[in-house]
Design a protein that fits this description.
The complex is a heterodimer. Chain A has one helix and nine strands. Chain B is about 10% helix and about 40% strand. Chain B is built from three helices and 30 strands. The chains are: A mainly beta, B mainly beta.
């Protein structure tokens, strides 16, 4: 009697897991009608993906345009992003992303960056995983204390996504934030900011 | 289709102005460079970061600093060591005035005035030996400066003479005077009859003593000078050549509105007088002058200047209320407003501590501990932003400020 509830619980979990697996399996059966050597199709032109990512940002270093490296004097950050993408085919996706990295300097003065970027991704499929490799570029709004700067940003990176079912995927983003800050008034004051984003992501396809 | 175009037009109409606003909101501080230059400003030596630090003195005979922030604190000299509270002579007393009297013939050279926390009534003027551990307070027995009816406004050593500014309540009003002593035991009055105006500061210019008071009415009386400079026969009289005074704070014709502090630079032989309407008056070559242009302005307000300190790099700092401190060359005889630069840190993007940059400066203390400026320790006491220690950064020719 004592084991019955555990058994019922296990059965329920197995049934629950079998539902999405069945849906993806249905997709897996579809490629039978596709030409040989072609991977099965998950995405087609016009499909949308919405991703929400939350995690941490690691301030790496500042580099002067002369080549010198210095520490950022920033603490470990919180990071996150919202991304919308539209698929061009099974592999290519373009989209827009609004991200954020919030930190404090060594004196606890608040610092944050909000990049707004256009993004292009190439998705490698290895069922039940996907490996998007991407690069984004755009503008970066940066604030520290009472100061506000606007810079350019480039964000290359990759993700590992586990497809839970045809609609949902979960995974990890590893993104490098390269933020060159040119300073025309005095070139010696220009710096390249280097940060690493490690975030967990949930993506929804529709 | 029409609605789609309307949405596109609305988007363009919103995005472009938003981007323009962003561009205009940008400041001229390169944030990455500023962060790279950041250093930890909090040193955590035991003084509350929001303390009101009214005075800091250096007790040379014991190599100790004393800080007055309601309670009295002490710590070893130099850059090491933590602050510890000094027990008041009567329990519950708060320290209202502090000085180290180098000219004292006795060892009891730390002079402090205490008052009752609750009633505000004077508990007396005390002295102690800074080298004694734990050390005891001895009350100064002179009713002119140390009794229940006498409030002490400041205690200051000038030219080996100890001055005590007092205010006495006579039952209906306060009267004021300045007392002096060469032994911290017996005191004499600087003014034969008490003044209606409170004495704000006293300074010695190498030959004569100068005193400023709150402006008197109906006609302005605020600057007094001693006849012969002999501390045994102080005889103050109004200075006939004082800068013209105005009750109008709007700086009409560069007239003085409210005096604050005096400072004499023996390096250049100038006597400086700070005022609350953004001006510094300078006595050089026997007459007072100030610049002819506008007063120093910040946020459309005249900068109220407070106390002075002379640093080892031919600069004089003058504190302000709410705008940090300003620096000018000690060789300047009639500083133009542009000769003053707001501090700390120039250029500003080299990580100025905001609390100091926007602070109300109550006092300075420069301790020249060694032969070079690298050895100097400069303290700044602020109102509600604690105590700051400046260590000279020779490589970047600037003071590195840390909150004690």
């Amino acid at each position: 009697l004592r084991k019955t509830p555990i058994f019922v619980l296990l059965l329920a979990v197995l049934l629950l897991l079998s539902y999405p697996a069945g849906r993806v399996a249905a997709q897996e059966q579809a490629p039978e009608q596709q030409p040989a050597q072609e991977p099965f199709t998950v995405y087609t032109l016009g499909q949308n993906t919405l991703s929400l990512s939350v995690g941490m940002g690691i301030p790496l270093f500042f580099q002067s345009f002369g080549g010198g490296y210095e520490k950022t004097n920033l603490k470990l950050s919180g990071a996150g992003s919202v991304q919308w993408g539209i698929h061009l085919n099974n592999h290519w996706m373009v989209g827009l992303e609004v991200a954020g990295m919030l930190s404090r300097d060594i004196n606890d003065v608040r610092f944050f960056m909000v990049p707004i970027t256009a993004k292009g991704s190439y998705i490698l499929h290895l069922f039940p995983f996907e490996f998007p490799i991407f690069i984004g570029t755009g503008m970066n709004i940066m604030k520290w204390s009472d100061d506000l700067n606007l810079t350019w940003i480039i964000k290359p990176g990759f993700s590992t996504i586990w497809k839970y079912n045809i609609d949902w995927g979960f995974g990890l983003n590893v993104v490098y934030w390269w933020v060159p800050q040119f300073w025309t008034d005095d070139r010696d004051l220009g710096r390249m900011g280097n940060f690493l984003e490690l975030t967990l992501t949930a993506q929804y396809n529709f | 289709m029409k609605s789609y175009r309307a949405i596109q037009r609305a988007k363009r109409a919103l995005i472009l102005p938003a981007f323009a606003v962003l561009l205009f909101a940008c400041t001229d501080t390169p944030i990455f460079y500023t962060l790279e230059k950041a250093y930890k400003t909090e040193d955590d030596r035991g003084i509350d970061n929001e303390a009101v630090v009214e005075r800091v003195v250096f007790a040379q005979s014991a190599d100790k600093y004393y800080a007055q922030l309601g309670s009295l604190y002490q710590r070893p000299g130099g850059t090491a060591g933590n602050w510890s509270r000094v027990s008041p002579p009567p329990s519950g007393g708060l320290c209202g005035a502090l000085e180290y009297f180098e000219g004292s013939p006795a060892v009891e050279r730390v002079i402090a005035w205490y008052y009752d926390t609750l009633s505000g009534e004077s508990l007396g003027l005390y002295k102690r030996d800074p080298a004694a551990v734990p050390g005891n307070w001895t009350q100064i027995i002179d009713t002119d400066v140390s009794s229940g009816s006498v409030r002490v406004n400041f205690v200051k050593e000038v030219n080996n003479t100890l001055f005590v500014s007092t205010s006495k309540y006579n039952g209906s009003d306060y009267t004021h005077n300045l007392y002096y002593s060469t032994d911290a035991a017996s005191f004499d009055a600087c003014f034969a009859t008490d003044l209606d105006e409170m004495v704000l500061d006293v300074e010695y210019d190498g030959s004569r003593y100068w005193v400023i008071t709150t402006p008197g009415t109906p006609h302005p009386k605020y600057l007094y000078v001693d006849g012969d400079g002999d501390p045994s026969t102080l005889d103050f009289a109004l200075d006939g050549g004082a800068p013209p005074f105005s009750y109008d704070s709007g700086d009409p014709d560069g007239t003085l509105y409210a005096p604050h502090s005096l400072y004499y630079s023996s390096t250049v032989g100038n006597l400086y007088l700070s005022s609350w309407q953004g001006r510094i008056f300078i006595r050089s070559g026997g007459s007072w002058s100030t610049w002819s242009g506008d007063p120093e302005i910040e946020d459309d307000q005249a900068v109220p200047f407070t106390r002075f300190v002379e640093t080892g790099d031919t600069r004089i700092f003058v504190g302000s209320q709410a705008y940090g401190y300003y620096s000018f060359s000690d060789g300047l005889t009639a500083p133009a407003a542009s000769g003053l630069s707001r501090q700390p840190s120039s250029p500003l993007y080299e990580y100025p501590p905001d609390e100091l940059y926007n602070g109300a400066i109550l006092c300075f203390l420069l301790d020249t501990r060694g032969p070079g400026q690298d050895d100097d320790v400069l303290f700044i006491g602020t109102s509600r932003a604690g105590l700051w220690r400046g260590d000279w950064d020779a490589a970047n020719t600037r003071w590195l400020w840390r909150q004690e």
